[in-house]
Write a structure and sequence with these properties.
single chain; alpha+beta; Arc Repressor Mutant, subunit A; 3-stranded antiparallel beta sheet; 25% strand
Length: 80
């Protein structure tokens, strides 16, 4: 997997055997992606997302969990 940040957007190129897929993340998804470092909890990600994007906690939690699940389903993120 290769990823790069271009301004506020993150592009992920997933290389799986003979397949290549490209994902373009919106600013909030890009923020979550950049801060999923294996050290922060979901609660910390949500708190930071609220501060960065002036979004309420319930929306940030819903969006963060949906993003994590989506990335796990695509084998782009491993959550322990």
């Amino acid at each position: 997997m290769i990823w790069a940040k271009l301004k506020e957007t993150i592009i992920i190129i997933a290389l799986h055997q003979t397949q290549e897929k490209v994902f373009k993340l919106n600013p909030t998804a890009a923020y979550i992606w950049e801060h999923c470092d294996g050290k922060k909890t979901v609660a910390q990600l949500v708190k930071n997302l609220c501060n960065e994007f002036s979004v309420d906690e319930a929306t940030a939690m819903k969006d963060t969990l949906a993003f994590i699940e989506n990335m796990k389903d695509k084998n782009l993120l491993d959550v322990q």
